[in-house]
Amino acid sequence: MRISAEDIGYSYRKKGRSIRVLETVSFAPKAGELTVITGRSGSGKTTLLNVLAGLLIPEDGRVMYDGRDICRADDGELSAFRNVNIGYIPQGHSALANLTLLQNILLPAALAGEDRTDTALELLQAVGLEKLKNAYPDELSGGELRRLAAARALINSPTVIFADEPTNDLDDENAAVILSLLKARAKEGAAVIIVTHDNMVSGYAYKVYTMDGGRLSEKENDHDDTLCRPLVS
Amino acid sequence: MKLRELPLIDIRRRPLRSTALIVVAAILSAAVFGGQVVIRSLQRGLDSLKQRLGADIIVLPEGAENKVDLENILLQGTPGYFYMDKSAAEEIASIDGVDKLSAQYFLVSANAECCTVQVQIIGFDEQSDITVKPWLKEAYEGSLGKNEIIVGAGLATKVGHSLTLYGVECRAVGKLERTGTGLDTAVYATNETVRGLIKASAEQGIAVLSRQSPEDVVSSVYIKAAEGTDLDELTAAINTEVEGVQAVRTKSMMTETADRLGVISKGIAVFIAAVWVLAVIIMSAVFYLTANERKREFAVLRVMGFSRKKLSRLVLTEALITAGAGAAAGVILTSAAVLPFVNIIEQKTALPLLMPKTSAIVSAGAAVIITVLATGSAAAALSAYRLSHIDTGKILREGC
Question: Which residues of chain A make contact with B310, given a CB cutoff of 8 A?
Answer without folding.
Answer: 79, 111
